[in-house]
Amino acid sequence: MILSTELLRQNAVFSHLQVADLKYLVRESISRNYQNGERIAHDGDIWPYIFLVGNGKVKAVKESAEGRILTIVTIGSGEIFWGPAFFQEGLPNLAALIADQGCQIFLWSQERILPILLANGRLSWELSGLMVDRMQRASDIVEELAFQPVAVRLASFLVDYFKDSESERVARDLTLDEMAARVGSTREVVSRILHRFANQGLIEITRTEFMFTNKDGLRQLAQIDGK
After folding, report:
1. Does 127 score more than 50 pLDDT?
2. 190 vs 155, 174, 182, 194, CA distance in Å?
3. In-domain check, residue 190
């Protein structure tokens, strides 16, 4: 994929820039391709960059000394993310950035994009709003980990992850380890709870698919209202 001014305009942060500024960002961008599972940046790195995902996904993950992994956020195509050092010199990354299913990103160093930020108040405003959204999501994750049982978190994840599926039967495109990383648990616990859901008639499980046999019951367990 080649970065274009049209692609930049699709992101709310860049959508109000003048054509000249968009062309500058296209010209100054650095394109990078990563394979599935490849690290873009490590936890603790001083990484003063902001990036736009062209295609694929990027995960920000926390890893414990015991090897447990928690996925903090997944950044999809057309979304942007940054290292803390982009805003404050010397601040280390608080999470590792890892390519999910292979990805291409377009990144800018602080020194290259700072003139655009300083000259465009609307861009800074939109970026601040995005930062607030990310902070709210981080707060929600902390609250879920602190106060909700793993079964509730897993039910909530299943309902949210597959909410756009038109079929009750969906492909298992995540491993147990990946699901555990999303809910802050281990693969053994996730496997046990999935089979408990199956015994309760909420889902059916095969090697390749989930079948939602009682999505309302799963929503109720997840404490989610709506259809």
Report:
1. yes
2. 10, 12, 10, 6
3. yes
Residue 188 is part of a domain; what is its CATH number?
A: 1.10.10.10
Distance between CA 60 and CA 82 in Å, rounded? 10
12 and 82 assigned to the same domain: yes
Does 158 share its domain with 123? no
Alpha helices in 78-186 (DSSP H): 110-119, 121-147, 150-161, 176-183
Q: What are 27-71's pLDDT values in tens digits?
A: 999 999 999 999 999 999 999 999 999 999 999 998 876 677 888
Which among 94, 121, 146 is the end of a domain? 146
For the stretch 158-201, pLDDT in tens is 988 888 777 788 888 888 988 888 888 888 889 999 999 999 99
62 and 121 in a single domain? The answer is yes
Whether the full predicted model's pTM is greater than 0.70, yes or no, is: no
> Both tokens of residue 54?
């062209």
Q: Which one of 146, 175, 208 terminates a domain?
A: 146
Segments forming the whole domain that contains residue 195: 148-222
CA distance 157 to 154: 5
Count of beta carbons in the 10 Å neighbourhood of residue 90: 8
The whole-angstrom separation of Cα 27 and Cα 35 is 24
pLDDT averaged over every residue in the chain: 88
Structurally, the chain folds into a number of domains equal to 2
pLDDT at 161: 85
Q: In the block, which residue shows the tokens 């942007």?
A: 80
